Amino acid sequence: MPVLRDSGFKGEITWLGMVPAGDSLQSEPADQLRLGFSGIAGERHEGENRASCVRVRNLYPEGTEIRNVRQLTILSEEELALIAADMGMERIDPAYLGATIILRGIPDFTFVPPGSRLQGPDGVTLTIDMENRPCVLPGREIENDHSGYGARFKPAAKNRRGITAWVERPGSLSLGGEFSLFVPDQRAWAP
Questions:
Q1: What pLDDT score was predicted for residue 189?
Q2: Sign (positive or negative) of CA dihedral 99, 101, 107, 112
């Protein structure tokens, strides 16, 4: 019996990018991406494992080797538009956010349940880790080109920053491609 059910929601890929290895958070736009088990070759977040960071400091000392569930950053086009509006901007370039994928068509995207899968037509499958909480780093990137707007990012992005994900099954992505959303077939946790 399958433990993931087709939600009926589809997300169209409207933007793709990759963050080259190095110090910058900014993504470089792409028309296509090839995903392996380690993510995107040459990308800043590539790797099956990674050093733990501040996000999990209540579990591990920083720098502890852990599974890399942050290979990809995925945001909703609709939520990105709301962030821009709250910041007083016409739009935000996804490159400032270190985005890998921007999708259109999945409501309340930032809160898709952890463990859900996004599956493309060629079988490429991404496992959703969890909400990618806003931080100051994208604000700094925005501020470099749009003075006075960077500090507005973090509050505007609350509950809208998208999710992080990792590659469960390799494959290719292209602009205009589509993902089907599969969610865990279980009731919500109610302790």
A1: 87
A2: negative
Q: How far apart are CA 47 and CA 44, in angstroms?
A: 9
Terminal Cα-to-Cα distance of the chain (whole angstroms): 26
Phi, psi (5° rounding) for residue 96? -60, -25
Are 118 and 181 within 8 A, CB to CB?
yes
Pick from 169, 187, 94, 76: nearest CA to 138: 94
Q: Report if pTM > 0.85.
A: yes
Query: Which is it for strands 101-104 and 4-18: parallel, antiparallel or unpaired?
Result: antiparallel
Cβ within 8 Å of residue 54, ≥6 positions away: 62
| pLDDT tens profile 110-124 | 999 999 999 998 999
Positions of the chain with pLDDT lower than 70, given as ranges = 1
